[in-house]
Design goal:
By secondary structure, the chain is an alpha/beta fold. Helix content is about 35%, strand content about 15%. The structure holds nicotinamide-adenine-dinucleotide and uridine-5'-diphosphate.
Length: about 325
């Protein structure tokens, strides 16, 4: 395998740090670019001593000038609480970030992969969701800064490909969990595990009948790398996620059982536009990439719970106001 210079934007985040770890282990020259809005240096501190790893503090809404062979564009807050914190900045991160990495890819003749999302399907009327489904997104709701930002980024990727022949890839990531999720990101897996371990109430939004399909981070990173290295005539978008679908109540009960916690289940109001169901149709990923997830929810949760038990939660902070 040839060694490449690879840029990972958002490389210090939950998924980005695992991706960097894999690429560094394979011997590539990896540049991790991040503004640390939703992450901390501790996620990549163990890579800093490696000669083939470099860390750049930079905000993707500003242009950057680098020479690379491949770009994984992950920079964007992903948890609802994080992306709604400064919604205008979230939209800028998706759109200006896409323009900046695509411009760089055009100049360097680099290949560039976009981390898109199942949120492009909004609150879906088609179940499970195939890539051909065009979605039902509320363009003016509180999730729109993220959903529409990611949709616009997909448009830019396809237009740079059609107009400028940039070699692109687009993956649509469904809910992914695992070690190094931010303990205060408010996402359902991190919230429930933290609440269970701290003996706090477990907060189910609404009745808990809404569903999500949970993919373990190692499976996701494997799918992402396969897509980057796949044939040039398959640019996506492709769904990457685990079709195992659970109600939020089922997840809460599983976390209680696996942690042995005595926390109570309590109900809080359902946030606006919260999708009622979500499950990826992964036929395309299976056919084109030979990819299927391998880690069942119970096994992935076991590793995630072990990691949450191992960290000192005081080292994690909520986003700061000046981002
Ligand atoms: P994360 O919040 O842990 O990682 C995002 C990283 O991007 C963080 O390190 C953050 O500091 C950085 N970032 C944010 N804005 C930036 C900016 N303007 N400039 C530079 N860096 C910036 O989230 P994650 O779960 O690791 O998500 C990674 C990517 O995958 C995101 O693009 C997200 O939209 C996408 N995704 C994730 C999931 C999931 O379930 N984890 C699902 C769908 C899509
Ligand atoms: N959720 C919940 N309790 C929490 C956090 C989230 O019931 O403490 C629900 C949320 O309303 C949604 C689902 O869990 O229906 C997944 O939420 P998350 O923020 O993880 O991701 P989403 O898929 O909504 O972007």
């Amino acid at each position: 395998m040839s060694l490449k210079r690879i840029l990972v934007t958002g490389g210090a985040g939950f998924l980005g740090s695992h991706l960097c770890e894999r690429l560094v282990a394979e011997g590539h020259d990896v540049i991790c670019l991040d503004n640390f809005f939703t992450s901390q240096k501790s996620n990549v501190a163990h890579l800093l001593g490696q000669a083939n790893f470099e860390l750049v503090r930079h905000d993707i809404t500003q242009p950057m000038w680098l020479e690379v062979d491949e770009i994984y564009n992950l920079a964007c807050p992903a948890a609802p609480g994080h992306y709604q914190y400064n919604p205008i900045k979230t939209m800028k991160t998706s759109v200006l970030g896409a323009i900046h990495v695509l411009g760089m890819a055009k100049r360097c003749r680099a290949k560039v992969l976009q981390a898109s999302t199942s949120e492009v399907y909004g609150d879906p009327e088609v179940h499970p969701q195939p890539e051909s489904y065009r979605g039902a997104v509320n363009p003016i709701g509180p999730r729109a800064c993220y959903d529409e930002g990611k949709r616009a980024a997909e448009t830019l990727f396809m237009d740079y490909h059609r107009s400028n022949r940039v070699n692109v890839r687009v993956i649509r990531i469904f809910n992914t969990y695992g070690p190094r999720m931010h303990p205060f990101d408010g996402r359902v897996v991190s919230n429930f595990i933290r609440q269970a371990l701290q003996g706090e109430d477990i907060t189910i939004f609404g009745e808990g009948n809404q569903t999500r399909s949970f993919c373990y981070r190692d499976d996701l990173v494997e799918g992402m790398i396969r897509m980057m290295n796949g044939p040039d005539d398959f640019i996506g978008p492709v769904n990457i996620g685990n079709p195992g679908e659970f109600t939020i109540r089922e997840l809460a009960e599983l976390v209680l059982e696996m942690t042995g916690s005595k926390s109570r289940l309590v109900h809080e109001p359902l946030p606006a536009d919260d999708p009622t169901q979500r499950q990826p149709d992964i036929t395309l990923a299976k056919e084109k990439l030979g990819w299927t997830p391998t880690v069942p929810l119970r096994e992935g949760l076991q590793k995630t719970i072990a990691w949450f038990r191992s960290i000192d939660i005081r080292h994690y902070r909520a986003p700061t106001p000046n981002y």
